Structure prediction request, 56 residues.
Amino acid sequence: MQSFLEMGGYGAYVWPAYIVSAGALVAIAALIRRRARTLSKKLRAANESVSKRSAA
Prediction:
């Protein structure tokens, strides 16, 4: 197990790269999710506005 973590002497470079990459993927997913929620709320509000105008 120790040799796996050391990655042939390059573990000090490989593992931080994996961590940074995983962090970037998580951040991108969070930003996409937040943007989707924001757009969904705006779309819902716009649809309600149109529905109220057409009902009047």
